[in-house]
Amino acid sequence: MFQVVRQSKPPYRIREVDAQDDAVADILAELHHLTFFDGATIPDFEWGYWWLAYREAIPVAFAGVVPSTHVRNAGYICRVGVLKQHCGNRLQLRLMRATESRARRNGWSCMVSDTTRNIASANNFIRAGYRLQQPRYPWAFPDTLYWRKFLGPVSSLHGTYPKRL
Ligand SMILES: CC(C)(COP(=O)(O)OP(=O)(O)OC[C@H]1O[C@@H](n2cnc3c(N)ncnc32)[C@H](O)[C@@H]1OP(=O)(O)O)[C@@H](O)C(=O)NCCC(=O)NCCS
Questions:
Q1: Which uninterrupted H or E stretch holds 103?
Q2: Ligand 1 mean position to 12 CA, how many Å?
Q3: Residues with a CB atom less than 6 Å from ligand 1
Q4: Ligand 1: which atom is nearest the Cα of residue 89?
Q5: How does pLDDT run across 77-122, given as a tens digit for each residue?
Q6: Does residue 89 contact residue 115 with C-beta atoms inside 8 Å?
Q7: Are 81 and 62 contacting, i.e. CB atoms less than 8 angstroms apart?
Q8: What residue's CA is closest to ligand 1, atom 19?
Q9: Is the dihedral of CA 124, 126, 127, 130 positive or negative?
Q10: What is the Cα–Cα distance from 76 to 124, expressed in whole angstroms?
């Protein structure tokens, strides 16, 4: 009798990386190019916090967070990109969870971000517990969706919302 042996795929691993390191910055730039093409300007990787998702030793996705310039004491998820052949594995969600751990350690009270004409990404913000909000001074396009998630015990226990942005 033959037994069918299914080979399980190696897991993805997520690591916060030091983007001051030139080699790391090069990997981030390459992933940025392969996921955003010309759709977004290349960010300054020396600013903020950056993560890579690896399958075995191969980087396949990345994310970055910077302190928000619009919302006080908040982190802004400025980029998330997943190589097309690795899409569908919830890597954006896992990367966003990693960004939240960092934000909590930084003492930030919330996370904000935005999506424009991007249903897959918007669905991941919903999965991660973000809610839509309307900033007082919107910073992107007319059809941009703005996302916010409060961190820490006060908002999650009572669902109270500080003043409008
Ligand atoms: C948006 C993005 C980060 C989502 O990546 P992800 O972590 O793979 O997202 P998910 O695992 O939720 O998969 C997204 C969808 O793609 C689908 N999908 C599965 N395999 C896929 C493949 N090979 N190619 C494309 N999409 C695939 C999934 O079914 C899923 O659909 P669902 O939400 O209906 O379940 C990724 O598509 C990406 O990098 N896009 C380009 C850069 C970008 O737009 N970044 C976000 C800016 S706001």
A1: helix 91-106
A2: 15
A3: 35-36, 80-82, 84, 87-92, 115, 118, 120-121, 123-124
A4: 11
A5: 999 999 999 999 999 999 999 999 999 999 999 999 999 999 999 9
A6: no
A7: yes
A8: 88
A9: positive
A10: 15
12-110: what fold? Aminopeptidase (3.40.630)
Contact between 90 and 80 (Cβ < 8 Å): no
Classified as helix, coil or strand, 132 is: strand
Whole-number pLDDT of residue 78: 97
Residue type, 15: R
**How many helices (DSSP H) and strands (DSSP E) are in the chain?**
4, 7
The segments of the chain whose pLDDT lies below 70 read: 1-5, 153-165
CA-nearest residue, atom 8 of ligand 1: 87
pTM: predicted TM-score of the whole model, two decimal places: 0.88
